Amino acid sequence: MSTDEGAPRDIEGGSSGSLLVDEPSTTETLEYPRGRDRSHRTLRGSLRHLQDRLVAYGLLFPAIAVFVIFFYVPAGYLLYISFFHWSVLSSGTKFVGLENFRRLFAQPLFLHSLETTGYYTLVMIPATVLIALAIALILREAVTARRGGVWRAAVFLPHVTPVVATSIIWVWIFNPQFGLANFVLTSLHLPALGWLGTTQWALPAVMIDTLWHSLGLYVIIFLAGLANVPRDLIEVAQLDGAKRQRIFRRIIWPLLSPTTFFVLILSTVNSWQAFSQIYTMTGGPHGGGGGPAFSTTTDALLVYTTAFTYDHFSLAAAMAAILFLIILVLTLIQKWISNRVVFYR
To answer: Out of 3, 28, 202, 287, which could bridge 24 as a Cys pair, Cβ 3.0 to 4.6 Å?
Structure first.
């Protein structure tokens, strides 16, 4: 049986004319579509990446807008009016340069407020860190044994209560005639104190209220930091015969240094901006906010009084700018120290 040698053959050796033997090879035919498919995939990936970024920025836009409108714009305008003679009751403004800052540092009350704020901060920061850490270490065992829910709620509850309401309660506690504080002192055969009515004990009374109100937040932060300390290291150290003090100093404290640094920053900012409890506790019969005799007048309280009581908004803006610079410098110093002390694992 003869075959037609001149007839075209397909790849399979048949006589179909769909794929001819003398056409380009399969590799040459698919080389261009592969490159085209790769470029399409790259373009598709870039578009998907751009879409993800747009969605992310769209979700972040409300939060960014809130920060810009309610923080950056007012802060920028505050810095602007600190170089002018500006009043909310007057339409005219006059550029005075650094005159507001020069007047501030010539005022003894402003220097006294900085001194009071510095003293308040120097006492509050170590007291906050030490007491909050001690309470967190005590609650750590209860949390580990799943019995710490009630105690954590009890410690954190004062922090979520309104500052003004709790400050009014503490005013009653520190009442020199029938307050609970003097009742405890006399029960212990100690002399009763004047508390908010005296220049010596007014600021310590405010510090006690602030500690009671703010400790819950710092205790919870320390508990979160303690939860990240591996218990295996502690158990191995206990098997080696290490005492609790050595375990805390060599294991817990270094691993807790980032949390401690965060608490230091937070307590510093809160201490320099203390206002509500001081204004509430030292007002009324005790000589107005910051009394008696300006013994509790902090920089934040003086900013409020200067602006809304005496209508000197330009001076108040200059005070706020100085307060911002002080907090910024303290934060940078703490950051510089943390780079040499804080241990990040």
So the answer is: 28
> Into how many domains does the chain fold?
2
Q: How far is the C-alpha of 114 from the C-alpha of 116, rounded, in Å?
A: 5
181 neighbors 242 (Cβ within 8 angstroms): no
Residue from 312, 338, 332 nearest 89 by CA: 312
**pTM of this structure:** 0.78
Residues 279-289 have pLDDT tens digits of 999 875 455 67
Same domain, 130 and 179: yes
**Phi, psi at 181, each rounded to 5°:** -65, -50
Contact 265, 332 (CB under 8 A): no
- Looking at residue 24, the DSSP 8-state letter turns out to be P
CA–CA distance, 283 with 270 (Å, rounded to integer): 21
The answer to whether residues 164 and 280 touch, using CB atoms and an 8 Å cutoff, is yes
The rounded distance, in Å, linking the Cα atoms of 116 and 204 is: 12
> What angle do helix axes 149-160 and 202-227 make, rounded to 10 degrees?
140
Per-residue pLDDT reduced to its tens digit, 264-284: 999 999 999 899 899 999 875
Rounded to an integer, the average pLDDT of 118-129 is 94
* CATH value at residue 259: 1.10.3720.10
Place of tokens 């920060």: 67
| 319, 299 contact by CB (below 8 A) | yes
Q: What is the mean pLDDT of residues 302-319?
A: 90
Full domain range(s) for residue 51: 27-65
Boundary (domain end) residue, out of 40, 65, 90: 65
Q: Is the same domain home to 172 and 296?
A: yes
Whether residue 219 is found in the same domain as residue 282? yes
3-class SS of residue 235: helix
